[in-house]
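#lab-general

N.A. 3:47 PM
ok so I finally got the sequence cleaned up, no stray characters, all 316 residues accounted for. can someone with queue access submit it? mine expired

B.Y. 3:52 PM
send it over

N.A. 3:53 PM
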Amino acid sequence: MDMITSKQRLLYTFVATTLLSLAGCGSSGSGGKTGTLSLGISDGPAHDAVKVCIAFDEIEFKGEGAPFTVDPGGIQNINLLDFQGANAAPLLFNEELPAGNYQWMRLGVNAVMGGTGGNGDDASTSLCAGDASYLAIDPDKGGTIHNLYVPSGAQSGLKLVSGFTVPVNGSADFTAEIDLMKSLTAPPGLSPDVVFRPTIRLVNNVEVGTLVGDVSSDLATAEACEPSVFVFDDGVSPNAIGTDADPAEYDPNDPIATAMVSAQVVNEETTYSYTVGFLLAGDYEVAFTCDGSTFEPVDGKPATIVAKEVETVSFP
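B.Y. 4:20 PM
back already:
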């Protein structure tokens, strides 16, 4: 199988829209046989945010029969910033489903214009308040709370429009990683709302590895720097995230994933590092950036991801 084509097929832009009621039930044509599915949620972080709370309220599946919904145990309001790198929040765990082939799944999200996201949040903990989605800005950068909403469209929720299989008497295990650097925008005139158009990579957990590395203090602490690492498909020169493309379209030149560079203090010595989890096995280009538009090195560094292993690429 061609690895780049495989990655592109598994990379989807989820078009976030206002929620409609999801209903119905059906079988995936497995003759009554079942399997289990686990689904985790992770994220690539966003600068200046201390909370990005996404309120998931249901998951809809379309097999060979009519669509049906699964309740994840009530509204799950998850602070994505608690689940970065190779960590994921369990949205479903060993959920029994009809075995067979599925055409798509859709994540229901409570994120409407003018919603109640952030009401009652006192920012004293990393926990999310209420049952609506919202963004909380670092107190050092203003400390404001912004309701998140997804623009309306033809479909509701966050829909994955490609197939997957739940094996008979077996299990399927996926992670959906939301790249927040590519998903949040604050158009003029919409304050306090912030637009949420999630860009999500859905990956099979048996096919992914992890990328880590160190960054020199000279790079990470440069003046006005917001240190990040961008990961691109093999053969793609490092470039800024596109802003003009239709959010429903996958731009092959956009980074596959992004990660913030964070500081760690050990024995009074500060070091800087990053982690990118849930990368499909294959070849990539990796680059450091302060501003999201200029890169070090300009042509990137090669990285080869092997399933269930850790690859190290550092920027000295």
